[in-house]
Write a structure and sequence with these properties.
- By secondary structure, this protein is mainly β.
- Helix content is 14%, strand content 36%.
- The longest helix is centred in the C-terminal third of the chain and has 19 residues.
- The protein is rod-shaped and about 85 Å long.
């Protein structure tokens, strides 16, 4: 699995090679250095060496290759709720690997109130990682209004909402007619 380095580490050799004498392969490990730190197959292992009980009874083939598989990393999402303000919003996303925080690119910017979806990805393609939970839902909530309180006028004057709307419409139409 990808770890950012080229060291093979301690790898059980029993699953990598065949032809072990019964009872000997399980305790033998393979060490060495990958020619590349990146994900791939058929990567040459430089300075391969067998160690462990019974290792002296075996020799390695002329070319030893291995594979590095992608590392699954968990996306940490931020800013999942916004109040509607007319601007486009989307969450932030990061992953941490070997102590380094990597900022991801997100999509799915939204303006309107509702539940929306965003997906995270690396800025440049990166085959060394698989992003777990790379999609998230986020929400834009209605803006609290700062509208004047007309209820005192409507209730105090005895005018109902329907009457107030009709009066407002008449005033607007009258102003239009005068301006012509």
């Amino acid at each position: 699995e990808y770890d950012g380095g080229t060291a093979l580490g301690t790898t059980a050799a029993a699953g990598l090679f065949t032809g072990w004498v019964t009872g000997e392969g399980a305790g033998i490990t393979l060490g060495g250095t990958y020619a590349s730190a990146n994900v791939g197959t058929g990567i040459t292992i430089a300075s391969p060496a067998l160690s462990g009980t019974g290792a002296a009874n075996y020799s390695l083939p002329a070319a030893v290759t291995g594979a590095i598989t992608p590392k699954t990393v968990t996306v940490v999402w931020g800013d999942l709720s916004f109040e509607h303000d007319g601007a486009a919003h989307m969450p932030t996303a990061t992953v941490t690997f070997n102590g380094e925080v990597i900022v991801l690119v997100t999509d799915g910017a939204a303006i309107d109130v509702g539940t929306h979806s965003s997906t995270a990805k690396f800025e440049q393609p990166n085959e060394n990682f698989i992003l777990a939970n790379d999609t998230v839902s986020f929400e834009i909530t209605p803006k609290e209004g700062d509208l004047p309180d007309w209820s005192w006028f409507l209730i105090g004057s005895g005018i109902g909402l329907a009457s107030f709307s009709a009066v407002w419409l008449i005033v607007v139409l009258a102003k239009r007619k005068r301006s012509k």
